[in-house]
Specification:
This protein has one domain: Inosine-uridine Nucleoside N-ribohydrolase, Chain A (Alpha-Beta Complex), CATH 3.90.245.10. Helix content is 36%, strand content 17%. It contains twelve helices and ten strands. The strands form two sheets. It has an eight-stranded mixed beta sheet with strand order 3-2-1-4-5-6-10-7, with helices on both faces. A two-stranded antiparallel sheet has the order 8-9. α1 runs antiparallel to α10, α5 packs across α7 and α9 runs antiparallel to α10. The two termini are 22 Å apart. It binds beta-D-ribofuranose (BDR) and calcium ion. The site of calcium ion has 7 residues, from loops.
């Protein structure tokens, strides 16, 4: 099988953790490495959590490289109120023995892109875009070597989740997002508009909990912790399972509808900092710089997720 080589850049986070499990379980993907960034919780915790998740998945072969501990030019904002104080509340996992790789995340990304044939490696950012922007700053030559960036971030019809205008990942480091969206690298973005269609309903969580392995009940416990915040906020059964949409798109793009749009990032305004200004109706005449996912087949998504997680320990 011709596997798609990917690097996941992440700030786990329960939904990041489920995305890591889905990637770890999918034979179509070659998981070259996991790079961590400060976001949902500080860097020391996102790095610890990434190691725990890979160990749970039985993927000690995947290097974990720690990256930026703060955004480019604003103080770090975290989301313990959503994810809990560890970032992975819901179930206690053992201390991992998988070591942190000696390479900095930014060095790992640059080195990997230069070593691999140009146009083959896909970057999958699931948190603030700090590491990706730093890599592009330090090594502009990698821009033409990246096959595509498939990221979770932003929102349009749905607005924001951390402010009325902004989604968390873009809000935390708007300058990094601006640099990524103007880099010329092909981008696919999974904004809140699509992730809010992928809800962790009780029935879907129950199906995961019933898997005859360790991973199924753990994923169910994470989702139950993670969804409580959004269930209360939006008054619905289930919370949006944001980050796994990125991996599901790589595996089954037909689960999603999309449109190519021009996307710009607000970096200046205090009121709308981190807003993704998506020209959905093509009123600006500006060239498209991103494929924007819009709708998802949520049942198809959870069928894929459940089938794949069943293959893990
Ligand atoms: C994004 O922010 C984080 O809380 C989640 O992990 C996801 O990446 C959703 O806005
Ligand atoms: Ca995330």
């Amino acid at each position: 099988m011709n596997r798609l080589p990917i690097i996941i850049d992440t700030d786990p986070g329960q939904d990041d953790a489920v995305a890591l499990l889905l990637a770890a379980a999918s034979p179509e993907l070659e998981l070259l490495g996991v790079t961590t960034v400060a976001g949902n919780v500080p860097l020391s915790l996102t790095t610890l959590n990434a190691r725990k998740v890979l160990e749970l998945a039985g993927r000690r072969d995947v290097p974990v490289c720690a990256g930026a501990d703060r955004p480019l030019d604003v103080p770090l904002v975290t989301a313990e109120h959503v994810h809990g104080d560890t970032g992975l509340n819901g179930v206690d996992l053992p201390e991992p023995t998988l070591p942190v790789d000696a390479r900095h995340a930014v060095d790992f990304i640059i080195q990997t892109l230069r070593e691999r044939p140009a146009g083959t490696v896909t970057l999958c950012p699931l948190g603030p875009l700090t590491n990706i922007a730093l890599a592009l700053r330090r090594a502009p030559d990698i821009a033409t070597r990246i096959r595509r960036i498939v990221l979770m971030g932003g929102g349009f019809f749905e607005g924001g989740n951390v402010t009325p205008a902004a989604e968390f990942n873009i809000y935390v480091d708007p300058q990094a997002a601006h640099e990524v969206f103007t880099s010329g690298v092909p981008i696919t973005m999974a904004p809140l508009d699509v992730t809010h269609e992928v809800l962790t309903t009780q029935k879907r969580i129950d199906a995961l909990r019933a898997l005859p392995n360790r991973v199924g009940p753990v994923a169910a416990a994470w989702m139950e912790f993670f969804e409580r915040y959004d269930e209360e906020k939006y008054g619905q059964d289930g919370g949006p399972l944001h980050d796994p949409c990125v991996i599901a798109f790589l595996l089954q793009p037909g689960l999603f509808t999309s449109r190519d749009c021009n996307v710009r990032i607000e970096t200046q305004s205090e009121l709308t900092r981190g807003m993704t200004v998506i020209d959905w109706w093509a009123v600006t005449g500006l060239p498209a710089n991103a494929q924007v996912l819009r709708h998802a087949d949520a049942d198809g998504f959870f069928a894929l997720l459940t089938e794949r997680l069943a293959a893990l320990p």
